[in-house]
Amino acid sequence: MRLGIAVLATALFGAGCSGPYSAPNVSANQARAIPVKVLQVRVESIPEVVTATGELFAEELATISAKVPGRVERLYVDLGSSVEPNQVLAELEKDDYRVRVRQAEALVEQTRARLGIADSPSDDVVAENTAMVRQAAASLKEARLIFANTSRLFKEGVVSKVDFERGQVSVQAAEARYQAALEEVMQLRAQLSERRALLVLARQQLADSTIRAPFRGAVTRRQASLGEFLAVNAPLVTLVRQHPLRLRLEVPERFADKVHIGQRVQVKLGGAGTERAGAVVRLSPAIEAESRSLLVEGEIPNEDGALRPGSFAEAVITVNPEARGIAVPADSLTSFAGIERVFVAVGGVLDERVVKTGRRLAGDRVEILSGLSSGDQVVRNAGEKMSRGQRVDTSGS
């Protein structure tokens, strides 16, 4: 009777101590080696990175407005339209501006004709060669000649003093007319320059009635309609530059010293699966007091327009491309009660290692921060039926 109770107690104790990470029971199965595949881990290149979340912004965002007033005669773009630099977006009615150009041209020609250079290709003019100055110069010469004769005759007593003084006044009047002619030429020169400027302005207004894109981008909003009258600075469309895009991130303060301009940044759009690589181009000079983070800006190429400004983005900044570490396939890891483990083969027997994992790498691998050393034989496809102390056959690896 006592022997039966002892056997039953032993069986119950063995069942109560069973579990996925309990010490293995000595059984006949322990003597039979189970075939497993192992991978010898090595220290390899695993660049050190900093992860952060942020948002994509347009490098340029501009509301294209009318520089001159007018009615929209033609509209060539709409929401989503892609445009190139200097591409025509819209045209205003041009008749009034063409008339102003012709009017300004006529005023210029009028002034050139008064200066006597209507047939000249240049606006350069010599005052003494103009008709008004030559006429005044001739009158002055005549007055001086008459006064010289009158003076001689006055000395001889032939003419009276009144005639002498009259000749003197005539010379003074001729000199004044000559000076006035010179000043009028100077005034006409200034008038010609002014009317030339008005002509340039009229032509510029005519050109401004054609509204063009200042840079390559896409239309995010159309704010005017065909036939609508636009005042000066009235918005027409909103244009955004799609390439490159600006990535704005908030990096935790503890990683701030590791981030530098020129470092590679890999961005992934949440939910879209689109990935792009760029570079860090700007760093804030101060830590944000509220979030205890560093504002970082990167530049991301977007020639195909696949990325959209305003999108939420997950980014990885490579802060040390020369860093090295250990990585194992994801199927080598087992987890129980929040603790991750791997099995290693040591002398044909399974051993168990508690590991601390890092980020997931390409090729479905996981970075191991601690718990493994270079040269360890890590078991692939670890399962719950494996336990420490089991004999294994690694010849098929």
Q: What's this, in brief?
A:
This protein is of the alpha+beta class. The protein is built from four helices and 25 strands.
Descriptive report:
This protein has 397 residues and is of the alpha+beta class. The chain has four domains: 22-46 and 324-393, conserved putative lor/sdh protein from methanococcus maripaludis s2 fold (Beta Barrel); 50-60 and 243-320, Beta Barrel (Elongation Factor Tu (Ef-tu), domain 3); 61-93 and 210-240, RNA polymerase II/Efflux pump adaptor protein, barrel-sandwich hybrid domain (OB fold (Dihydrolipoamide Acetyltransferase, E2P)); 95-205, no CATH class. The chain is built from four helices and 25 strands. It has helices at 2-16, 95-114, 131-156, 161-208; strands at residues 34-35, 38-40, 44-45, 48-58, 61-65, 70-75, 82-83, 88-92, 210-212, 217-222, 229-230, 235-240, 245-252, 264-269, 275-288, 293-300, 312-320, 324-329, 333-336, 339-346, 349-354, 356-361, 365-370, 377-379, 392-393. The chain has a six-stranded antiparallel beta barrel with strand order 4-13-16-15-14-17. It has a four-stranded antiparallel β-sheet with strand order 3-18-23-22, with no helix packed on it. Strands 5-12-10-7 form a four-stranded antiparallel β-sheet, with no helix packed on it. Helix 2 (95-114) runs antiparallel to helix 4 and helix 3 (131-156) runs antiparallel to helix 4 (161-208). The two termini are 52 Å apart.
